[in-house]
Amino acid sequence: MIWIFHQIILGLHILLAIFWVGGLSFIGWGVFPAIRHLKYVEQRDLLLAIMKWAHPLFTIAGLGVIFTGVLLGTVLGPIDHWNDIWNTRFGSLWLTAFIVASLSLAWGALIGYKQMEKVLNNELLWIEADQGMKENLYRALLKLFLIESVEPLGFAVLIAIMVLF
Question: For 7-57, how does the pLDDT look when each residue is reduced to its tens digit (9 = 90+)?
């Protein structure tokens, strides 16, 4: 029975990871390029609507990934004592994955999202861009891209850790 429960939680862990990583990837590599033909103010309005709807879902999915990962490593996995975290390869990798996932989620949910809100709520940047003055918007978007890149970097580290398991 425990094996079946383990497989269900593992499936949920993978599904939530797909929602978290895949959802953010779709917005970054699908939505952003697709809206380039719209006026800048329309791009802003669409991105604001998408992010207000999607951000809570991505945060919940990220929390679910972390929670199921904790279950898979402890209750349903090999970590029975604190010593297992410090004295086994699995424990070290598990702790590293937990820290990286937690920091990635916190960065995306708190820092990256706040920066995105700041750029999207600055109507003047988008109006100026529609009038041909794009430099300030491009600078703000480059800064946003660099800040938002931390979360996908965390995803890459997590994938590398999973391969090491």
Answer: 999 999 999 999 999 999 999 889 988 998 999 999 999 999 999 999 999
80-129 pLDDT, tens digit per residue, is 999 999 999 999 999 999 999 999 999 999 999 999 999 999 999 999 99
Domain boundaries, the chain: 2-164
User: Cα separation of 111 and 95, whole Å?
Assistant: 23
One-letter amino acid of 82: W
Decide: residue 15, CB within 10 A, 0-12 exposed, 13-18 middle, 19+ buried: middle
Phi then psi for 40, rounded to 5 degrees? -60, -40
With both helix axes pointing from N to C terminus, report the angle between 40-73 and 123-130 in degrees, rounded to the nearest 10. 130
* CB within 8 Å of 134: residues ≥ 6 apart: 40, 128
Matching residue, tokens 């970097």: 153
Q: Are 68 and 9 in contact (CB under 8 A)?
A: yes
Strands (DSSP E) contained in 54-142 are none
Angle separating helix axes 89-106 and 150-164, nearest 10 degrees = 160
Instruction: Give the whole-angstrom CA distance, residue 127 versus residue 44.
Output: 10
